[in-house]
Design brief:
about 450 residues, Hydrophobic Seed Protein, 3 domains, four-stranded mixed β-sheet, two-stranded antiparallel ribbon, 21 helices, single chain, about 50% helix
Length: about 450
């Protein structure tokens, strides 16, 4: 029943993960599975669900349910039901409210799910008001299915999402985040994101996205930032094959979607009729960190996406190969382990319709990547580090761990960035020279 039946009808085959519903209560289900399954688990017992695995097949068997919801919570008071049709009525959408009765192989579709599947339409088995009041997370699932399956939400679903959007606030940030991740990692996220913005739900869960819909001035002096961001996301997805792990890449996609969220706060009109967005990369990085933390993303994801948003304009100072080798090294140093994603984001951030300009920019991107590769090959290091590490600095200067060692390390790193690899002998000489200058500077006030 549910998703496995939907997917079997969509792609013409069953997977290895099946959902069943039964009149049997959990203790009976568990007893019947014992002996057949390689493993049985009951973490969903409170909701009537027993899970099991046999070979490559995994099943979840749930007692027919007839839930009652408290208006202040999306967690139901679970009551066991007595019919398959009643159980199906509590599903999120009609395309997930279909089943096959195993006793006689009867196809059970009391709410028109098959017709909706054929029409690629999302409807709720009961009214959207009742469905979304019971479980507001279903509104996020509507957007996710729009992205994953390419379905269109029925007008009643759109109206329900618009009218009941405030109820999403009773859902935990973690659950909202999980649905957003599934949406973004789908084949075509645009449909789901558009639905979130159109219904106003994005104003509650990702307000920085609809805020990108800046009013266009009569002279069209700047791009539609919202549409530009969606286009950059699509182009990032198309370039994910360049990444070492391929796609879908959540960090790259989040960075593409959020890279310009600093623009609304930094837009200024100039006296000569122009528009500026000075420092929108810096402002955007701060907003990105705040939003992703609010959605309870991991620290690794927050740091990586924030770094990419903060760096996304850096390349535009490259011009036509004017950067020195030291500037290229600093670019690599600042990007760190996000360099490949930064390459993808920078390329994807070109949405000009001017074919000549697009070709020119692609050539400049190719040039800096070639220079980075050449320097890495010549200098033998993928990451830019000073020629001496902290332990060597402490041994040479007879220092304990502390602030001064950090200062010495940073000085050698600057020399490495400016001049390339120094070699052991020159690095030691540079370290001792720096140390003498530092000591002389500290002694000077005493001498005076």
């Amino acid at each position: 029943m549910g998703g496995p039946v939907r997917d079997a009808l969509l792609v013409g085959r069953l997977g290895n993960d099946w959902d069943f519903a039964t009149s049997a209560h959990p203790e009976t289900t568990e007893r019947l599975l014992t002996g057949w399954a390689d493993a049985v688990w009951d973490v969903g017992r409170a909701f009537g669900t027993i899970g099991a695995r046999s070979g490559s097949a995994q099943v979840e068997i749930t007692t027919y349910r007839s839930d009652r919801y408290d208006a202040t919570s999306r967690k139901p008071d679970v009551d066991f039901g007595d019919s398959l049709e009643g159980d199906l009525s509590r599903r999120d959408f009609t395309v997930n409210a279909m089943a096959v009765r195993l006793s006689d192989h009867e196809f059970v579709d009391p709410y028109g799910g098959l017709a909706d599947l054929a029409a690629r339409r999302l409807r709720t088995p009961v009214t959207p008001v009742q469905s979304f009041t019971d479980d507001p997370l279903r509104m996020m699932r509507a957007a996710r299915f729009a992205a994953q399956l390419g379905f269109t939400a029925d007008d009643t679903v759109v109206a329900g999402m618009r009218d009941l959007g405030d109820r999403i606030t009773i859902v935990s940030a973690e659950r909202v985040r999980d649905e957003l991740v599934k949406l973004l990692c789908s084949t075509d996220p645009r449909g789901g994101l558009t639905l979130l913005v159109h219904t106003g739900l994005a104003d509650r869960v990702l307000p920085e996205l609809p805020a990108l819909r800046l009013e266009r001035d009569e002279h069209h002096r700047h791009k539609d930032v919202y549409e530009h961001s969606l286009k950059v996301l699509e182009q990032t997805i198309a370039l994910e094959e360049r990444l070492p792990a391929g796609g879908p890449d959540l960090v790259a996609r989040l960075a593409a979607l959020l890279h310009d969220i600093g623009k609304p706060r930094t837009r200024r009109f100039t006296a000569d009729g122009g528009v500026t967005f000075h420092h929108h990369d810096v402002v955007g990085a701060k907003l990105t960190r705040k939003r992703l933390r609010a959605l309870r993303f991991s620290n690794d994801v927050v740091d990586a996406v924030t770094e990419l948003v903060g760096l996304h304009l850096r390349f535009h100072g490259y011009g036509s190969s004017e950067w020195t080798d030291s500037a290229v090294r600093r670019y690599v140093r600042d990007a760190g382990d996000q360099l490949e994603r930064l390459h993808v984001l920078t390329r994807a951030d070109t949405t000009t319709r001017n074919a000549r300009k697009a070709v020119r920019l692609q050539g400049i991107y190719d040039d800096i990547e070639a220079r980075i590769a050449r320097l890495a090959e010549e200098e033998g290091r993928a990451k830019v580090r000073p020629d001496l590490d902290g332990k060597q600095i402490m041994a040479l200067l007879d220092l304990p761990p502390g602030r001064i060692v950090g200062e010495a390390y940073r000085h050698l790193l600057e020399q490495r960035l400016e001049h390339g690899p120094l070699g052991d002998e020159r690095a030691r000489a540079e370290l001792f020279s720096w140390w003498e200058r530092r000591q002389a500077g500290e002694a000077a006030p005493e001498q005076r």
